[in-house]
Amino acid sequence: MSTYLSTELRHRLLEADNRHCAYCHTSQANxxxxxxxxxxxxxxxxxxxxxxxxxxxxxxxxxxxxxxxTAQDPLTDETIPLFxxxxxxxxDHFVWNPSGAELVGLTATGRATIVALNMNNPLIVAVRRRxxxxxxxxPQE
Length: 141
Description:
alpha+beta
């Protein structure tokens, strides 16, 4: 579904998300596809089209997230809220592995989000490895 955003709201999102996916921090240049607008709480669950409920997401994270707002932590098997880009601090939940190609979950929320959004799928990990090899450094925040 396409969402109309005012120029002001789109600019505010671009600034807040630093032109990267708010979930996996991959840039549009790395994915080769335009970023999508994600309703953090989906419209089907009452989520509104306001800054506090919107973020930029790469197509892959957005499609895997779908209407999910919770997922299972692979370590504890508990159902956990997914990472919320406007309420949670990214670096509290995620870190890049030493190669800079894979995300590691620091918390139950981080781990559940990585699995639910398939953030370390082989295709994007291979792309990140190529980008790292030419000097790209993944954003930390």
